[in-house]
Design a protein that fits this description.
36% strand, 250 residues, six-stranded antiparallel beta barrel, eight-stranded mixed beta sheet, Thrombin, subunit H
Length: 250
């Protein structure tokens, strides 16, 4: 079920500060892409975390089809505590990054390190950063679930609009929890989407929230979905952080 606009506004007021967008523009069949994610603290550094297939696709498009992504930026003003409505230019291509994506192994996560200047700008705009102490003690049971992101159907942006300033439309979708999957190497979040009229293509990397008592926890990042069964999957933050720490320390 697509969550009503007034409720989305409430969610963004309380939890939008944890949502960050990686955006860029493609040079072939000109198109802006907006990918949701969150900021994690790993090995004492700030990292933008999202779905790994996003990084994989960027590399594949560049090497196979000469599709160049450019004008990378981070958009960070989804929380009501922000005081800046612009964006942060970001040197994604030269930044330190790690990712894993394998359909066979059912694994999908990616992180990119943020430089000190970018971190200061995010801090100044009151962006929420998740530490290990927060994701390592999540509740096992939640009263409900929802996810935030930017459906691709809302990405109709021209090159000129993107250059000046383009902001994706944030969507919140209710999730019905299903049995978690262990088809691959790691347990994955699994849920079903009540019927809604907006496809979730483009929401990969968006945070999945679990409601417990009077609080809300970010427990996973959405990674894939099956349109016919309206089933979504996500990488738990506990899994992502464990795998990422190994790569960072290697």
């Amino acid at each position: 079920m697509l969550i009503a606009d007034e409720f989305v506004e409430g969610l963004m007021r309380d939890f939008g500060r944890y949502l960050v967008c990686l955006a860029y523009f493609r040079n072939v069949n000109p198109k802006a892409d907006f990918h949701p994610g969150v900021i994690l603290e790993l090995a004492g550094k700030w990292w933008f975390a999202t779905a790994g297939h996003i990084f994989h696709d960027l590399e594949r498009y560049r090497t196979r089809y000469n599709v160049i992504a450019e004008d990378f930026r981070l958009i960070d003003h989804f929380g009501h505590g922000s005081d800046r409505q612009g964006y942060i230019p970001f040197d994604f291509m030269n930044a330190r990054k790690f990712y894993e994506f394998s359909k066979e192994r059912r694994i999908d996560w990616g992180i990119v390190e943020l430089d000190a200047y970018t971190v200061r700008l995010l801090q100044a705009n009151d962006v929420g950063m998740l530490t290990e102490s927060e994701w390592s003690k999540h509740s096992k049971e939640h009263e409900g679930y929802f996810m935030l992101g930017f459906p691709a159907v809302s990405h109709n942006v021209t090159a000129t609009e993107f250059t000046i300033r383009a902001n994706p439309k944030t969507t919140a979708i209710h999730i019905e929890r299903a049995d978690d999957c262990r088809e691959g190497e790691h347990l994955r979040f699994s849920g079903r989407l009540p019927k809604c009229d907006i496809p979730i293509e483009g929401m990969s990397g968006g945070p999945i929230f679990g409601l417990v008592a009077d609080s809300v926890e970010i427990i996973a990042l959405q990674s894939s979905w099956l349109s016919e069964s309206q089933t979504i999957f996500g990488t738990f933050l506990t899994t992502l952080s464990k795998l990422a720490e190994v790569r960072i320390q290697a």
